[in-house]
Amino acid sequence: MNSPVIVAHYHELWLKGRNRKFFLRKLAQALRQALDGIPVERIEQPGDRFLVRLRPEALVSAAVERIERVFGIVYFAVAQTIERDLDALCAAAWAEIEPLKFSTFAVRAKRSDKSFPHNAMKIEATVGRFLLDKLHAAGRNASVNLSEPDITCRVEITPGPALVYARKIPGAGGLPTNTGGRMLCLLSGGYDSAVAAYLMMKRGAHLSFAHFYGTGARPGESSIHVARELARRLTLYQLGVKLWRIPFEPIQREIVRYAPESYRILLYRRMMMRIAAVLARRDHALALVTGDSLGQVASQTLQNMVAVGDATLMPVFRPLAGTDKLEILAIARKIGTYDISSEPFHDCCPIFMPRTPELYATPKSVAHAEANLDLAALVQQGVESATLERFRYVNGIAEEVTSVTRDNPDSVTEQQAASA
To answer: Does domain 182-419 sit in CATH 3.40.50.300?
Structure first.
């Protein structure tokens, strides 16, 4: 019995020049981790693709589901494994394309085992003629197009069985995980921040998360349960996640007590930035990520986004800045975070909501608004109260590893708070 084979193709990694080997090594590592628990015979890298040779007992559907989440794979296919004979190749190629709808097609062959008596050109011509005859006999008006075909039937002659496949399965694309540096994402529990995290993960960034929550521990009260499930879901893409949970209501009460009402939301967000920046540096992260979308809510006018970002010297990435809500929700559905973010929860920011929020703040005006706050003390309070949870990818699921409270963090000085 031949073992199932999955052929995985990458694209963008070809642009990496001398760094290509590094990215391909990371991609191979991600494939192995993603398939943890599935019987894999070996993973090969012949030329410009990966061959995942599964053991006969492996569940192919489970392997497909996991490879769909591997960043760096642009598309893949489950190949038929065929005896190395032209007639068998023709029959297998017909079985691949016969159910598909198309007007034009092409056959592409690779012969990595030169002991096979027919070269790639001969294979392409023979299989292509056979398919064309079968299509016409079936009354289908299809033709050969070698430059831009609707579908491509691929034949690979390897040292083992020959491989035939035509049905592409879209991959996640992007760059392999953990190739773009560390970042920390402010994870709210809503749709936007989880999608923003996914998009940065897709560019190879390795993300940890900071979630600021209000009081209440039951579903529908605090947002902790939503943040935890989002982190668990995103672990399936990154294969390991850290989640910082920070109780924020005591800090909000201080802001309400000493700051102008119209600036409350902006000062909440600035304080979150400062606390997140301290936690990010502890994790050797170089930047923050938020789910801000320009103009979506009052705090996300251009002026307010600049004023909030001014609270920290750490770079702030906003991958959704030019994305509308419908696009964000479409991505959330695709990656499996939509239903989680739809769960009822109380976001901490709307607590003590101002009746008339400031729309066009400046760095100078928000600095004046928080002049009566002890910034260093509030940042230290947030950092000291942070609880760390870890999730890791094991056998196709995300499991919680441990929960550790930072009881004795390093002191946060006024200078550190100002430069956070």
So the answer is: no
CB neighbour list of residue 255: distance below 8 Å, 6 or more residues apart: 264, 267, 268, 271, 370, 373
Fill in the amino acid letter for 78: V
Beta bridge partners of 152: 106
- Can you give the pTM of this predicted structure? 0.89
Of the CATH numbers 3.30.2130.30, 3.20.20.70, 3.10.20.30, 3.40.30.80, which one belongs to the domain with range 5-170?
A: 3.30.2130.30
Boundaries of every domain in the chain:
5-170, 182-419
Identify the three-state secondary structure at position 80: strand
Residue for token digits 């699921």? 397
pLDDT of 351 reads 61
Angle between the 224-238 and 191-202 helix axes, to the nearest 10 degrees? 20
Tracing tokens 């080997």 back to the chain, one arrives at 21
Between the CA of residue 240 and those of 27, 95, 203, 223, 322, what are the distances in Å?
15, 40, 16, 21, 28
Beta-sheet strands, E only, within 58-128 = 75-82, 104-111
Q: What is the rounded end-to-end Cα distance, in angstroms, of the chain? A: 60
Structure tokens at 339: 């239903």
Residue 102 confidence (pLDDT)? 95
DSSP letters of 8-48?
A: EE--GGGGGGGGHHHHHHHHHHHHHHHTTTS-EEEEE--TT
Q: Which pLDDT does position 216 carry in this prediction?
A: 56
pLDDT along the chain (420 residues), means of 10: 84 78 92 94 87 92 96 94 92 95 95 89 96 95 94 91 92 94 95 97 97 70 88 96 95 93 94 98 96 90 95 97 95 96 73 80 94 96 96 91 56 48
